[in-house]
Write a structure and sequence with these properties.
Radius of gyration: 20 Å
Oligomer: single chain
Number of strands: 13
Shape: globular
Strand order of the largest sheet: 2-3-6-7-1-13-12
Order of helices and strands: HEEEEEEEEHEEEEE
Structural class: mainly beta
Largest sheet: 7 strands, mixed
Distance between the termini: 77 Å
Strand content: over 45%
Length: 166
């Protein structure tokens, strides 16, 4: 009796887990951007941002506001992170995840006087599609201007250089 129940339970577990992922889905879908902001003379505007290490990440401590909007949620407050190289902030790091589908657009609303030189809200929008069971970035805009990737999702993020005329 115990053996029969064990076999039945194992069969049920195999059926349950095989239905969770038929090989057609790969949730969660992750969206990672590394954005480098430069002025027209090539100066990295992310350098000089104040940050502190939080376990494996570097959280911005300078004044900023950040909200994210996607096709599935309303505005949510987010934490702004930087990627540090040679003890200096080099990139802003934006990330997001969904579980049931690939979001077609993700919009980050950012107010950061250190980078933009003002207290205005700047809109960064990324456009995505599902390809080979992953979220693939098609395009990134900042304040309605298109910017090209300097590197596709190589090291877990799409890297983009955004040149500002400030």
């Amino acid at each position: 009796m115990k053996t029969r129940n064990l076999i039945w339970l194992l069969t049920l577990l195999v059926m349950l887990f095989s239905r969770c992922n038929n090989g057609n889905e790969a949730p969660p879908y992750n969206y990672h951007l590394k954005l480098k902001f430069e002025d027209s003379s090539g100066k990295n505007l992310v350098n000089g941002l104040k940050y502190e290490q939080q376990s494996y990440s570097f959280q911005v401590t300078d004044e900023y506001k950040l909200q994210v909007t996607s096709t599935d949620i309303s505005d949510q407050k987010e934490i702004l992170y930087v990627e540090v190289e040679n003890d200096q902030a080099e990139y802003l790091h934006f990330s997001y995840s969904t579980f049931d589908y690939v979001a077609s657009t993700i919009t980050w609303k950012l107010v950061c006087p250190h980078i933009f030189g003002d207290n205005e809200e700047h809109i960064i929008t990324s456009y995505w599609k599902k390809e080979n069971h992953m979220a693939v970035c098609l395009k990134i805009t900042c304040d309605d201007k298109d910017f090209q990737f300097t590197q596709k999702q190589g090291s877990n993020a799409y890297t983009t250089l955004i040149t500002l005329s400030k």
